[in-house]
Prior knowledge:
This protein is an alpha/beta fold. It is 46% helix and 17% strand.
Amino acid sequence: xxxxxxxxxxxxxxxxxxxxxxxxxxxxxxxxxxxxxxxxxxxxxxxxxxxxxxxxxxxxxxxxxxxxxxxxxxxxxxxxxxxxxxxxxxxxxxxxxxxxxxxxxxxxxxxxxxxxxxxxxxxxxxxxxxxxxxxxxxxxxxxxxxxxxxxxxxxxxxxxxxxxxxxxxxxxxxxxxxxxxxxxxxxxxxxxxxxxxxxxxxxxxxxxxxxxxxxxxxxxxxxxxxxxxxxxxxxxxxxxxxxxxxxxxxxxxxxxxxxxxxxxxxxxxxxxxxxxxxxxxxxxxxxxxxxxxxxxxxxxxxxxxxxxxxxxxxxxxxxxxxxxxxxxxxxxxxxxxxxxxxxxxxxxxxxxxxxxxxxxxxxxxxxxxxxxxxxxxxxxxxxxxxxxxxxxxxxxxxxxxxxxxxxxxxxxxxxxxxxxxxxxxxxxxxxxxxxxxxxxxxxxxxxxxxxxxxxxxxxxxxxxxxxxxxxxxxxxxxxxxxxxxxxxxxxxxxxxxxxxxxxxxxxxxxxxxxxxxxxxxxxxxxxxx
Length: 529
């Protein structure tokens, strides 16, 4: 379809109303005419009291306020306006450049200030800056994405390798964030469709290549979970300074890009890279593979004392510290290291206090489980589902947590020291909205995005099917126990109580299957500024 048929972007043309308060308003008549000729409505008043009256009876978009008016002064008027209309942009205009006046005005949260004499173009630019910035930004981002739309489409039509998929996903995450505040619904629908198509093709590509990567038949394969510490962390350990690994469970690349400016207030980003989670994209498998440097079947064979299968009782990630220790030793690192799992704010605060002790270690690994708990809570709590009902709000909740958690205090403390810092994760998650029917006996695993067990009944066309778990280096629990993985935004639902199941899980964040969001995940290295 031609681009001009796809993109029907329309921006509302709204009339901007300006309230201008100045006791010498007659002298400003040329400025007012200049604005009116450009489609603005200007309400002129000569005092602060008149300004307050007009605000109570008209919808005003922006106020120009003379600082030096008789009667109710500009600063007093400003105070009353901000008390009643805190989000209304107010521009202070003053003859005086005295610092105390500016301090008082800025302390009262003016949006901007101008020094007399002002010229019409100054006024026009100020109006546009404070009333049309969002619309102008939306227009610019829409036009820029329109130019990239065809380019991304052409890339999707080619035969991408793993590096090209990473590049494409970076572009999609960039546009996801760039278009988040766009005012045009049409552009959001276009982007959602293109991202969905990218996910469809990514799933097919991953399914075609995954078993060859695991069997080492492919020379050109991405960095996957068992390789990431060896290839990206261990080179840092050869340096003399300590390295702190902050692993945020279930942390997506778009969440990293959203919080990056906050982290960069304290640390410099040296390298922003991605790697590929193994399947299933869950903590039990992906994180154990990261810490051990081995695939799950290899862990079970080499270190059976550290592996807990799905059909066994016990916590599935209770031996990460021991697996990391074995991995370090196999790679020639006889170093002091520590391992910490932060499950609550109290422990997080105590951990910040212990940084001087951790500076004696070459490696410190700290795991934060908040985001994983948030994604599970979105299933169990209607309130949390409301708060994290889409990717944009999910990112916002992540940022809010970062800003108010002990993690940011840890980052601030590390920024004062000569250390390497790594921010990474074990897997991501995706919003599910399409149920796929599956049946099995009581051995069936409970995860919504992958299933393993006896007597599995499903449509092979709906899933990524691995009949022999050894082909993907997974433990084989039963004689007949294939693995199946959900694609894109699918999730598995049982025929029994099907409608109730679908209602419960549709629109929740899940992981375990194949999607760009679950598989391509961040490994970021940072250091002191």
